[in-house]
Amino acid sequence: MQGQSQQQAYDRGITIFSPDGRLYQVEYAREAVKRGTASVGLRTPDGVVLTANRRVSSPLMERSSVEKIHKADDHVGVASAGHVADARQLVDLARRRAQGEQLRYGQQIGVETLTRSITDHIQEYTQTGGARPFGVALLVGGIEDGEPKLFETDPSGTDYEWQAAAIGGDRDVIQGYLEDNYHDELDVDGGIELAVRALSEPEDEVVAAEEVDVATITTDDETFSSVSVDRLESIIEEIDVEEMDE
């Protein structure tokens, strides 16, 4: 009974390591991320593309109510996978941090600095009793000193910088497609097309325009901008034509 009690302690308590040095609650949070619909981010020489699958569970649900991509500041966007409510809390934190930088110093916050603020907050919840880790991963993309930047956050509180990355369900398949097809000479339009193709890779057909949410931040204006459904439809039509010709 004592051994079972100890096992339950490190299985349920975030502040207790297992005998093999693992934090099970963090690993469970990663599993929550895998159960979410996928998001893709990629960096091009002239901007960052954030793309998210926002499939709905019922035809009666308003698709616009599914929030997967958020504006954190004029020059920074965030895409999420996992628990939407957890993502909303972290996005609100990012917005407050960005506003504080602007009010205190009169300048935009750096993308890496903002990401580190988010992951520092996430990490606190991996060693605080009576709390649980955030069951969400984020892709934070934007422009810093004229250069596109893209970071991923993990439920452990670790951040990674990427050229192209996928989070959420079917990550391995989507990431494999990105690794095979990404190149650093893509423009923003090419990045959108690649991201849509990558999100479609686990499916038998290209995703529909209304099932995808896309935002860009370009080096020209350094401004977060959502991509219209009409533009997405034209990109998806081109993908369909190319696949029929192959």
From TrEMBL:
Protein localization: Cytoplasm
Keyword annotations: Cytoplasm, Proteasome
Source taxon at top rank: Archaea
Classification via SUPFAM superfamilies: N-terminal nucleophile aminohydrolases (Ntn hydrolases)
GO terms for MF: threonine-type endopeptidase activity
Domain Proteasome alpha-type subunits stretches: 10-32
Keyword Cytoplasm: yes
Regulation: The formation of the proteasomal ATPase PAN-20S proteasome complex, via the docking of the C-termini of PAN into the intersubunit pockets in the alpha-rings, triggers opening of the gate for substrate entry. Interconversion between the open-gate and close-gate conformations leads to a dynamic regulation of the 20S proteasome proteolysis activity.
InterPro entries registered for this protein in UniProt: Ntn_hydrolases_N, Proteasome_alpha, Proteasome_alpha-type, Proteasome_asu_arc, Proteasome_asu_N, Proteasome_sua/b
GO terms classed as biological process: proteasomal protein catabolic process; ubiquitin-dependent protein catabolic process
One term under GO cellular component: cytoplasm
Record Pfam families: Proteasome, Proteasome_A_N
Purpose: Component of the proteasome core, a large protease complex with broad specificity involved in protein degradation.
Family (UniProt): Belongs to the peptidase T1A family.
SUBUNIT field: The 20S proteasome core is composed of 14 alpha and 14 beta subunits that assemble into four stacked heptameric rings, resulting in a barrel-shaped structure. The two inner rings, each composed of seven catalytic beta subunits, are sandwiched by two outer rings, each composed of seven alpha subunits. The catalytic chamber with the active sites is on the inside of the barrel. Has a gated structure, the ends of the cylinder being occluded by the N-termini of the alpha-subunits. Is capped at one or both ends by the proteasome regulatory ATPase, PAN. The 20S proteasome core is composed of 14 alpha and 14 beta subunits that assemble into four stacked heptameric rings, resulting in a barrel-shaped structure. The two inner rings, each composed of seven catalytic beta subunits, are sandwiched by two outer rings, each composed of seven alpha subunits. H.volcanii produces at least 2 types of 20S proteasomes: an alpha1-beta proteasome and a proteasome containing all three subunits (alpha1, alpha2, and beta) that appears to be asymmetrical with homo-oligomeric alpha1 and alpha2 rings positioned on separate ends.
Protein name, entry field: Proteasome subunit alpha
Organism, scientific name: Natrinema hispanicum
